[in-house]
Prior knowledge:
This protein has helices at residues 12-19, 23-26, 57-75, 220-223, 350-363, 372-382, 398-401, 409-418, and strands at 29-30, 82-90, 113-115, 121-124, 126-137, 144-146, 156-162, 174-177, 194-195, 199-203, 206-212, 230-231, 241-250, 255-260, 281-292, 297-306, 311-314, 325-332. The protein is α+β, with helices and mostly antiparallel strands. Strands 2, 3, 4, 14, 15, 16, 17 and 18 form an 8-stranded antiparallel beta sheet that branches. The protein has a 4-stranded antiparallel beta sheet with strand order 5-13-8-9, with no helix packed on it. Strands 6-7-11-10 form a 4-stranded antiparallel beta sheet, with no helix packed on it.
Amino acid sequence: MARAETPTWLPLDRFAQIIGVNPLHFNQLTSQYLPAGSHCGDVWFQKSWILPDQAGREDVAEAINLAEQRLAAVMGYYLLPDWIEDERIKTVRPARPELFARASMNLRGQLKSVDTRWDYVISGGQRKKDPIEVDVGITKVGGEVLDLDLDLYFETVRFNVNVAAFPLINECEIKVYYPDTDPLVYLPAMDEWEIKPIKVTRVGNVVTIEFKRWQIVLPTPQEVINAGSIDGDVDASYLATVDVYRVWNDPQAMAELLWEVDQEPTGCALCAGAGCPSCAFNSQDGCFHVRDERRGLIAYTPATWDAANNRYNRAAYTVCRDPDQLRVWYYAGYESSHPGIQCPRIQLDPFLEKIIAHYAAALVDRELCSCNNTERFVEYCREDLARTGREVAHQLSPSDLDNPFGTTRGAVDAWRKINTGDWIVHR
């Protein structure tokens, strides 16, 4: 699997596919079954210092992450649903500074609302990860390794897991990770070691999982100081087991209401001489519902979690006025409506995938590889459209010239595309 320490919404293997890199070479593999006469035979490495004149997978991941964060900041939402942790939001207060808002309702008699930092809010809650089955065999004994396209390279891994113990599970909540038995994997189910993309199908309580074998290359040969190409034709180059987890949104803790402590005149008799809490907030658990998911408006109230009925029950305010601040945890991001997307909460829209890939290619500050087609593509994306000279002159509109992403072709292309349709929330 093409992996990196830097998290990305766009899988690295998908990036390689978009820019035209052979998936085996991108994952440091060679095979006798690759097409003869290929001019793209150089393998990629994990770190750039292994081959200093070529970018590594870590460099690509950093560029992709930078492109994703810049796009999200301008567009107003995560390009793929993800969790936001402990965001602080100030509640609405009266215009007169000496007044507090005592009422917890708006003018319509409904709960008050606040605006979250990120739009396309799906639900309040926190990320939770539960093991379904660990050390699942994925060799020809434990599962299947198939050559579906009959090219003699056995590229498809397929195996089953039972989810009877998880009656509420959605197949899109299932994720696969490298096992924690490898010495380079320090903690189980770290996001760095997620195998993606995968294909999941469910029949009853049996879930079938498929992915490509080049996604499960052993990490040790990729990390050693004298790393070289890895033989993709032998079983010893790949994992024998994987861990399967459920990653889902747990709504049990989504909001905390905060009030500043009212400061009284100091004195020895205060609080029976024991001292009073200061420089802290009074707090109360709460919940919220999404009033406008597109714009990120949520309506809050004090509440307690009812584990027996899997819901929140309203509670009375412990402080008799509207809270000063909220701490919120929520799940938010754009969900694609593309007909080819099976799980829009874990799969990027194809339109966004290409924007990210083209912009990221312009941000990588090293040569990607010696492949002619890739080199031409990257040079095309990196070209500075603001440059003028005797041999070149580009025509850019003021909007394109001043766009927040830069003036490379990949940056200008990203800016133009997100300004089509209704991709940007806050204009």
